[in-house]
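Hey, weird one. I pasted the Gfo/Idh/MocA family oxidoreductase sequence into the form twice and got a warning about non-standard characters only the second time. First submission, copied straight from the form history:
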Amino acid sequence: MANKLGVGVIGCGNISKAYFSLAPLFRGIKMRACADINMEAAKARAKEFKLRAETVIDLLKDEEIDIIVNLTIPAVHYEVSKAVLDAGKHVYSEKPFVLSIEEGLDLKKRAEKKGLRIGSAPDTFLGGAHQLVRNLIDSGKLGAITSGTCHVMGHGMEHWHPNPDFFFQPGAGPVLDIGPYYVTNLIQLIGPVKQVAAFATTPAKERTISSKPRAGEKIPVNTPTTIHALLEFANGAVITLNTSWDVWSHGHAPMELYGELGTVFVPDPNFFGGEVRFTDSAKPVKKLPKWNHPFGVPNEMHGQGMMANYRTAGLADMAIAIAEGRPHRCSMELALHAVDVMTGILRSGESGKYVAMQTTCERPAALGVKDAKALLAKKN
């Protein structure tokens, strides 16, 4: 692929730094410009990463930009992505892709009319650990997956995020903010979901920020913060998904999948790497040997140790897929089905009824070692 697609970013907040710093790892894309409704934020990021700072309107008109990455808050994902498509550019969105099926279908129609692509985070399921689990499942060593559990629980973002307000508003909460990592990984490992059921509660109606610079400020909570859900998959598997921002500590594993022939312990889907363990029937639990997958190699400090972080892998895969004329893995169909599952969980929590999915999708193509290496830029 001789020519790289020019990439612009709308939204220069916290997550933008990961995109700008990690994009050079990949071929097929070139970060060129950024925009934000706060021009000072755009200028600061532009200076930090040697990019052009533009207004949103100018970025949409920029002829050197082929793909725009939508890093705005979830409440405006649809409006921004619509503007990008209407401007004739491909769009790649942060999660959640949209907040309703209707919004997603409208974007799909706009993209198809102009021959454009839509992609969406999360791309952590492309990580070495999760692709190792995918390889294990696809090999048949676990037999059919029949059930499982997922737990993503903590005590909220007000303890570390500088502006945590939107995490506690409709469009966020633990299901729509952290849930995409878990739900998307489940779909790529097992397949589409048939129906869901859930209970949802909001124990605290307001939160006190303990992070700087707004420590001590109180913010309202207008979306459920503890949701226990049950997902029935099209293949018959039944998975429990517990999400909460009302838990100080727990001892649950992030994800366990139970097959006819064994169990696999899946590391946190919020990250690319981690240890994969499994049982072969009644034999003792053991670690799978390290896989030579490039997206499982630790490359970034996190807390007290190194971790694997390859965000923008999904964006690069989309850019290369456009050039090669093949489907991209972080697809609109996958993202929309995940939104269907998550919004269905919230509706079930409100109504107390089962909610059937309105959409479906194919599992994205696996990303083996060879294909992952093909996404990386050649080292000098």
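That's the output from the first submission. The warning seems to come from a hidden character in my clipboard, not from the data itself. The radius of gyration is 20 Å.
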